[in-house]
Specification:
By secondary structure, this protein is of the alpha/beta class. 47% of the residues lie in helices and 15% in strands. The strands form 6 sheets. An 8-stranded mixed sheet has the order 19-18-16-14-13-12-27-28, with no helix packed on it. Strands 20-21-22-23-24-25-26 form a 7-stranded mixed sheet. A 5-stranded mixed beta barrel has the order 1-5-6-8-7. Strand 22 and strand 23 form a beta hairpin. The chain is globular and about 95 Å long.
């Protein structure tokens, strides 16, 4: 007894483990593929698939049963019992009973019958999207009043940079339309799944005068109306002014006035999209159910208990516990994506495993006399423990919302826990296959869900590859627990990476180490987080204490994600197609085979690991030697940040002045890291368009920043407020740049040429308020124009500050090389080198061929980031040069 208790947790019992039973794998795969295809087929084709599958499958089943009876009659006629064998163990006959193979026929019949069932289920679910009045109303883009029942919590869309502005943010709800009131007053009852999009932004005073708004109006987009507003930079009201739409719970019934538009993607699981203006509070016509109100109180208590934590812990803890990601900042979300840690922010089977393990006891002991855990400590009998474990699972589903993703997590989590609890991993393959089969038959749309695919692949990896890899590592003297953790992380990554590459067009090289390091903190963060959830509604001081304790491991996970995402070689771009996924699978298989050989030669394995580490970290001295980047003595660098601006002026010894931050924190952070910039005495933000300021968190990440200087024209206001908030969180002063200002930092000195202190009249466009700098760096003269438009360019060339503009060495071309340039200023500046910061295949046609031609006609060498990558200017005078990266 004691020997059994002291065995390796999760190891297979030598007499309990048998050969892997794969009979349910083929039906499960058939159901999955059929459902994925059938939800997009017409009713006629679905009927054909169902009829053919049932007829052929039924015929084979009858034929197989006939073969069984024939074999038995032959055996009785010969006076013999049917020969023993694996076929007879399953109700069939051996090959000696005749040419028929009833076992094989039964398997094929089962697959075909499952195909028919999956097609029928998919056809019925797809029919829900076509029946009722909603699809016809969507085709006409009709305005309706509708009653809807919410089936999900609100999801805040992440800010997207579109040109020079942030795309509007909104709240998304899954819902069922239960009643539609048409314009003529006719009421129609229905039950149709839809996506509700609520624009919860406060309204601004008119369409505004920004270039971005002008472009939207030119494209036919409706202008907004209303009064001034202040936002948190994500398009939502300021902290403390939470929109009432955000507090709605699933099962709430609302009456909304909305425009019905077609679904965004063909083959989606909704019939239409309801676009709702969210300026007014929601009109509630039916309260949520009791369980949903209870779950809502628990979730709200968890949020309140975490209010006093640091920003990362405050955002992460609700995500780790119940999948609430509403507080996750875009840059942190991107860091989790870059390190393949996003599964920690979704409700996953791992959450349930941790909770049930705490209740039932350590894996491998749950069914033994020596079992431990909370239930054993309380003296709960084994059967009562099983019942309470089921109740705990049900409560988990209710609190985390009973939508398909949570049901999938509960099913896969229960399977994973059962696998390690019984030590019979191979026998759990049929359980996984059965779970897939039943879940897809219940909800065929899961067959098209990438999240479902990743969950099944990860669970399958833990049941198949991980035990073998763990045993191989232990044979090579790797400590048992380390071997299990490494094998689990590597196996899940090997199977999931091809699918992740399809989604993100990138392969993470830091995913396995980041998952390993985060694993140490996941269990304490989850356990303490659930303790906070349970106590917040009854004892808030206790909840705040447990939340404070949970904040430490949650902060560790956030630090792991940020550190991994910041590594220059942490990821490799990959083709985002299924062809690319297949190629990555082949590369992974080859890498696994090579790794097995390397493990037999430890010195070679250490060398390869060191080389991989150097590639990921890419220390600047080594990068400079191998890749020639950054070039020695560089003066000015223009970062390739896509459709935006980010320039770096070298001060020396890891210090630099940054001019604009681009649209993407990750891109500018990568550029500054490769340049070796660790200290920034000044960040200049030429104006507040998103393609110049949205990357500011990447500039500030892990660097000492002395000051942020901006233009005085605070448009768009939400992005100006975003800058102020980022600066306030890090206690960085924000100042205003005005024409005539002179400053110096190390070998740099510069003069602000624009904007004037009190422009009269005020600029119509934020572009015309761009901070413009004339910079000198040991004999090199640079003119940085921001996004100045021709009116401001003409005013600049005629202003008193324009002295010294004649014949500069380097010009940062205004507004990404647009066609709108002042010819007089171009003639006067006559640069030797013109640099254009622009994104590839941008929809604006930047840089304009006319602008490029005009610069080259005046003798300038024109380089652009979309074709040449990062650019670094070196030397001065006759030694002027530029390096590409």
């Amino acid at each position: 007894m004691h020997a059994a208790a002291g065995s390796r947790l999760g190891d297979a019992h030598p007499r309990a483990e048998g050969p892997t039973d794969l009979r349910l794998v083929a039906p499960a795969a058939a159901v999955w593929i059929t459902a994925a295809v059938s939800v997009g087929l017409s009713p006629g084709w679905v009927t054909v698939v169902v009829a053919v599958s049932l007829v052929i499958g039924g015929g084979l089943l009858v034929a197989g049963r006939g073969g069984i009876w024939t074999g038995r009659r032959c055996a009785r006629a010969e006076g013999k019992a049917p020969p023993a064998g694996p076929d007879n163990a399953r109700g069939g006959t051996s090959a000696r009973a005749g040419p028929a193979r009833p076992g094989l026929w039964a398997s094929v019949s089962a697959v075909l019958l499952c195909v028919g069932a999956a097609a029928a289920s998919a056809g019925l679910h797809a029919a829900d999207l076509r029946r009722g009045p909603v699809p016809a109303l969507a085709e006409r883009f009709a305005d309706v009043t509708a009653e809807v029942e919410l089936t999900s919590d609100p999801r805040l869309t992440r800010p997207r940079i579109t040109g020079d502005h942030v795309a509007p943010t909104a709240l998304l709800f899954d819902a069922d339309v239960t009643r539609v009131v048409r314009a003529d007053g006719t009421e129609l009852a229905t039950r149709t799944p839809v996506l509700v999009i609520v624009d919860v932004r406060s309204r601004r005073g008119g369409p505004g005068k920004t270039g971005g708004h002008r472009r939207l109006e030119a494209a036919g987009a409706p202008a907004e109306a209303g009064g001034p507003r202040r936002t948190d930079g994500l398009g939502l009201p300021e902290a403390g002014r939470r929109s009432p739409w955000q507090d709605l719970l699933p099962s709430t019934r609302l009456r909304v006035t909305a425009r019905v538009v077609p679904a965004l993607v063909d083959g989606d699981d909704i019939a239409a999209v309801l676009r709702v203006r969210g300026g007014a509070p929601p009109e509630v016509v039916g309260a949520p159910s009791g369980p949903q109100r209870f779950a809502g109180r628990l979730r709200e208590g968890l949020r309140r208990a975490t209010d006093g934590l640091d920003a990362d812990a405050r955002a992460l803890l609700p995500g780790l516990v119940v999948g609430d990601t509403s507080r996750i900042a875009p840059e942190l979300d991107e860091a989790f994506r870059a390190t393949d840690l996003t599964h920690l922010l979704a409700v996953s089977g791992g959450n349930l495993v941790i909770v049930l393990t705490l209740f039932l006891g350590p894996p491998g002991l749950a069914q033994r006399v020596e079992r431990r855990g909370l239930a054993s400590r309380l003296g709960v009998p084994l059967r009562a423990t099983a019942v309470l474990g089921g109740a705990l699972t049900l409560a988990f589903v209710i609190v985390c919302r009973p939508d398909p993703s949570v049901l999938r997590a509960a099913a896969c989590g229960s399977i994973s826990l059962l696998a390690v609890a019984t030590g019979r991993r191979r026998s759990l393959i049929p359980a996984l296959a059965a779970a897939v089969l039943l879940l897809v038959l219940y909800d065929p749309w899961l067959a098209r869900s990438y999240g479902f695919l990743l969950s099944v692949l990860a669970t399958g990896a833990l049941l198949t590859l991980a035990p073998r890899w763990s045993a191989a590592l232990r044979r090579r003297r790797v400590p048992a627990r380390a071997a299990e953790a490494l094998a689990a992380a590597a196996a899940a990554q090997a199977l999931c990476a091809p699918v992740v590459a399809v989604l993100s067009a990138r392969v993470s090289l830091v995913a396995v180490p980041c998952n390993l390091l985060a694993e140490f903190a996941v269990t304490p963060a989850t356990v303490l987080g659930f303790a906070t959830l349970a106590t917040a509604s009854v004892a808030m001081p206790v909840a705040k204490f447990t939340a404070w304790c949970a904040g430490w491991p949650a902060g560790w996970i956030a630090d792991i994600a940020r550190t991994g995402a910041a590594q220059p070689g942490g990821g490799v771009d990959w083709q985002d197609s299924w062809t690319g996924a297949l190629l990555l699978a082949l590369v992974t298989a080859a890498g696994v085979a090579a790794g097995r050989r390397l493990l037999r030669h430890p010195p070679a394995a250490v060398v390869v690991a060191a080389l991989l580490l150097l590639f990921v970290v890419q220390p600047p001295p080594l990068t400079r030697v191998i890749m020639g980047w950054p070039p020695p003595g560089w003066r000015f660098a223009m970062c390739d940040v896509g459709q935006g601006d980010a320039g770096v002026l070298a001060v020396g010894d890891g210090s630099a002045v940054v001019v604009d931050a681009g649209p993407d924190p990750a891109s500018v952070d990568r550029c500054l890291s490769t340049l070796g910039v660790t200290r920034i005495p000044l960040v200049v933000l030429t104006h507040f368009h998103a393609d110049h300021v949205a990357g500011l968190p990447g500039v500030l990440r892990g660097r000492s920043v002395g000051e942020i200087e901006t233009t005085g024209f605070e448009e768009p206001p939400e992005q100006a407020e975003f800058v102020r908030r980022e600066a306030a969180e890090r206690h960085i002063p924000v100042t205003r740049a005005v024409a005539g200002e002179r400053r110096r930092a190390g070998r740099l000195d510069w003069r602000v040429l624009w904007p004037p202190p009190d422009p009269d009249p005020p600029p119509d466009d934020p572009n015309d308020a761009s901070v413009t700098l004339l910079v000198r760096s040991a004999g090199l003269r640079l003119l940085l124009l921001g996004d100045l438009e021709p009116p401001a360019q003409r005013a600049l060339s005629r202003s008193p500050e324009a002295a010294g503009l004649d014949g500069v060495d380097v010009l940062k071309v205004a507004h990404h090389g647009s066609a709108y340039q002042d010819p007089e200023l171009m003639r006067r500046v006559a640069p030797r080198l013109a640099l254009v910061s622009v994104g590839g295949d941008n929809p604006y046609g930047h840089p304009a061929p006319s602008t490029v031609a005009a610069l080259r006609a005046r003798g300038a060498v024109v380089l652009r980031t979309d074709e040449d990558g990062d650019l670094a200017v070196t030397g001065a005078g006759e030694g002027l040069g530029v390096a590409r990266h």
